[in-house]
Design brief:
Length: about 150
């Protein structure tokens, strides 16, 4: 379900509308978290190539602190208004904190499930069009040229 959401968010349909992915983590182990993002992979692009999460994420805020601080920095770095952002988290305190900025926030106690993904889409009046049109990142194009 998280993989499905990430594939949809990186599809041509979403990318052409300026969709970006950010990570906000309150970890005390940022180096370890970044390494995990390198190692975790999803099928991506029209050729279903496996790509690390690190290559599809646009903004990283991985350090101890409040999620509100993370989102303020994402806003500053990206220029995206808070009311054009979506946040999902399994901790209610994080959802409440970030929501106070005007970010559309969803409590996901069981993580990103298909039900929560569809709840978010419904909230925005979107559908889960399953067209398989994932964008390839520049790094992927370079990687495939090297093979």
């Amino acid at each position: 379900s998280t993989g499905h959401a990430l594939r949809r968010l990186t599809s041509k349909t979403w990318v052409k509308h300026g969709t970006m992915i950010a990570v906000a983590s309150r970890t005390n182990y940022p180096d370890w978290a970044n390494e995990c993002l390198k190692l975790m992979k999803i099928q991506h692009g029209t050729n279903k190539k496996m790509v690390s999460l690190q290559k599809i994420i646009h903004h990283f805020q991985i350090y101890p602190g409040d999620k509100k601080t993370h989102f303020k920095r994402i806003h500053k770095d990206s220029g995206i208004p808070f009311d054009r952002m979506v946040f999902m988290d399994n901790e209610r305190r994080n959802v409440q904190s970030v929501a106070s900025l005007g970010v559309h926030s969803f409590y996901t106690p069981d993580g990103m499930t298909m039900d929560k993904w569809h709840e978010m889409l419904t909230y925005f009046g979107l559908d889960d069009n399953d067209d398989d049109d994932s964008e390839e990142t520049e790094e992927e194009e370079e990687d495939s040229n090297d093979e």
